[in-house]
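*Target chain*
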Amino acid sequence: MGFKLRALVVVSSGVVLGVCTYAAYRTWKKRQYSADDEGFEDVSKLEESLEKKVLVLGLEGSGKSTLVSQIVKEVGQKSITSNTVYKPTEGFNVTSLSDGGSPTVNIWEIGGKESVRRYWPKFFQDTDILVFVVDASNNSNQSVVVSEIKSLLGDARLASVPILVLANKQDMIGALNAEQISNVLDLKSIPSRSHQVKVLETQTRPESNEIHQTVLEVRKVLLKLSSHM
């Protein structure tokens, strides 16, 4: 069963432009569903049944762009090579993932610079799954990561949204494993009734043309979670 990749929107610079584009996109989607609706089904339910939104957040340099690019790649395609250099996302990038069935999973990756993070809440609406990418090899910014995650959990728009924390860059010396990241971020204190939290270890294997097994596992989890919503 092949995976289908469909690029929706790519905004690599201009945060304000990105937010405006996102608002325009949501308006367009609402109108599209309204036009298709024959009055037999609520528009919000129709939208929910057709697409799922995965919001990917994380600090700058955590490896979000590389991870997302590999998550949506077709199995069997060449992966990222060592010559590929990703610049930090300034606005947001959107790609889609599907296993040929329903629903389509739209993956929204938002930039992680400090100047961009204040715009994160603009993208919370309609999120079905939250993915937070952590550079597990960087111990200097853990307090910032903890602060950002607590802020996310305090937003009503993300209430009950499943959270997938990716302990990325496991190939780096000194990288913390999933259990250690869970302890450092105090994820076990999150009430299970409010959020389903899962921590996975990931690495993107830039020196190889093959997608690392940990990335394939993330793809599998995202598709499974989306299909059961």
Q: What stands out?
A: The first strand starts at residue 4 and ends at 11.
